[in-house]
Amino acid sequence: LRTFLYLEDATVAFWRVLLAGSAGVIYNVGSPSPEVSILELAQRVPAAAGGPSCVVVNSQTPPSSSTSPARTCPDISRLQTDLKFSVQYGLDEMIARTLEWLRLDAN
């Protein structure tokens, strides 16, 4: 499971850390929710684009890897508390905004 952060939110968080963060303090930048699988993300994109699902799932289980965590959900409480950061864009809005940008870029 993974969480995703829109680039605009990440940029705001990085600037807050650079301008107001305390020296030597570690700030995790990310989104605490929603946690989704790559499969769920792959299903949401064509749905948001208004097209048919084109997701093909390989039924073979990949070998497990000790270098890839099962979950990646950052604890951003310090960023939220100390630097008053909050995520502005949810996953569905991120997908919609990215698709709109791609449509505009294609024209």
Strand content: under 5%
The radius of gyration is 17 Å
Unreliable spans are none
The number of distinct helices, counting runs of at least 4 residues, comes to 4
Helicity range: 40-55%
Kindly state the number of beta strands. Answer: 0
Describe the structure.
The protein has 107 residues and is an all-alpha fold. It has 4 helices and no strands. It has helices at residues 7-20, 38-49, 77-83, 91-106.
Features:
mainly alpha, flat, 107 residues, 4 helices
Secondary structure layout:
Layout: H1 7-20, H2 38-49, H3 77-83, H4 91-106
In short:
By secondary structure, this protein is mostly helical. It has helices at residues 7-20, 38-49, 77-83, 91-106.
